[in-house]
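Tokens for chain A. Residues wanted.
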């Protein structure tokens, strides 16, 4: 747990600490959605400058796992949360792409964990491209706790995950509507919050995407929102806790997620799409990301930058032709694993994320 050194009890120091942990509106002339730089708080005579989090880094790693999702959040106190675990290595119809992605995920986790455990494996919903690789992660690496949405317990993928956890005696907790306490405790500078609707939308009964359990991580003036594959109906019901700094784009950039209304509420400054390359593995069947979503995100994130992003702009994926994949001008604050590979973003709690060199 982080400790804050305070050698004076004066109210001005407390006020400075609270100000450093808040995310104020951008000052005049600041780009919309871009957090203002942190100003060093004034210190009382002879007292040290107090900084929220003491400048320690938090790293969010989006792994290139093809048409799947796996995100490792390394908290400033050294704990690790893995949100989803990629796809099943031998998923039917995926070919070598899923096996390659699984091997990449496991080797990357070993490198980045550096012998530390995964303190929490957070599984957003029971689709193969989110939980299919969880049994391999559990079998290969130390995992201390698992959270899922508690649904579809008879489904083969869910049975595999829960069986692997039971074999290793790892506790599994269901995060359901009304849940407010995460399975991993918050600390002085870091707050973890489940982002779950008050009740599942009606569409959840036939679409597991709409039963996704989101997770918000706040670190001083920086925040991360991971929403799995939540689609428009669930997005309407989510209380995300206000604007966020970094957004995991829902459903791999599908047009069924990331509605204008949702973006207007969360107002991200940065965003990442986890999706496969055109025609790669099961992305032959999904054609993610969609051009409309890339354009929408680019408007919110601050306009087109120096690089474009190849996205699908056809009517139907099952009738896709090469001409349906187009280059879309994209914001420099929007990354995509299909284009950029692994994306590691670092913040010191100042409201700014910087890409870590590969």
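Reply:
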């Amino acid at each position: 747990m982080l400790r804050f050194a305070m050698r004076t009890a004066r109210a001005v120091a407390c006020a400075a600490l609270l100000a450093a942990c808040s995310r104020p509106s951008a000052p005049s002339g600041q780009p919309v959605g871009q957090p203002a730089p942190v100003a060093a708080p004034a210190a009382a005579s002879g007292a040290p400058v107090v900084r929220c989090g003491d400048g320690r880094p938090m790293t969010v790693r989006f792994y290139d796992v093809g048409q799947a999702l796996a995100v490792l959040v390394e908290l400033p106190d050294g704990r690790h949360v893995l949100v989803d675990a990629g796809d099943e290595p031998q998923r039917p119809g995926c070919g070598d792409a899923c096996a390659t992605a699984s091997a990449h995920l496991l080797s990357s986790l070993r490198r980045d964990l550096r012998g530390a455990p995964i303190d929490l494996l957070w599984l957003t919903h029971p689709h193969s491209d989110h939980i299919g690789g969880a049994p391999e992660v559990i079998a290969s690496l130390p995992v201390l706790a698992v959270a899922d949405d508690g649904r579809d317990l008879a489904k083969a993928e869910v049975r595999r995950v829960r069986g692997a956890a039971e074999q290793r005696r790892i506790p599994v907790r269901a995060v359901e509507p009304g849940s407010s306490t995460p399975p991993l405790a918050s600390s002085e500078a870091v707050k973890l919050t489940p982002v779950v609707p008050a009740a599942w939308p009606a569409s959840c009964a036939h679409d597991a995407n709409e039963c996704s359990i989101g997770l918000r991580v706040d670190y001083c003036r920086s925040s991360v929102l991971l929403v799995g594959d939540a689609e428009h109906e669930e997005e309407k019901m989510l209380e995300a806790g206000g604007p966020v700094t970094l957004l995991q784009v829902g459903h791999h950039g599908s047009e069924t997620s990331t509605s204008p209304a949702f973006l207007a509420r969360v107002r991200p400054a940065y965003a990442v799409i986890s999706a496969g390359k055109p025609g790669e593995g099961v992305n032959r069947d999904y054609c993610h990301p969609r051009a409309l979503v890339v354009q929408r995100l680019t408007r919110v994130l601050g306009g087109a930058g120096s690089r474009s992003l190849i996205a699908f702009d056809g009517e139907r994926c099952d009738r896709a032709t090469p001409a349906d994949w187009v280059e879309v001008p994209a914001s420099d604050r929007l990354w995509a694993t299909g284009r950029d590979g692994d994306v590691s973003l670092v913040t010191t709690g100042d409201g700014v994320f910087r890409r870590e060199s590969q």
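Residues 96-113 form the longest helix (18 residues). The CA atoms of residues 281 and 318 lie 14 Å apart.
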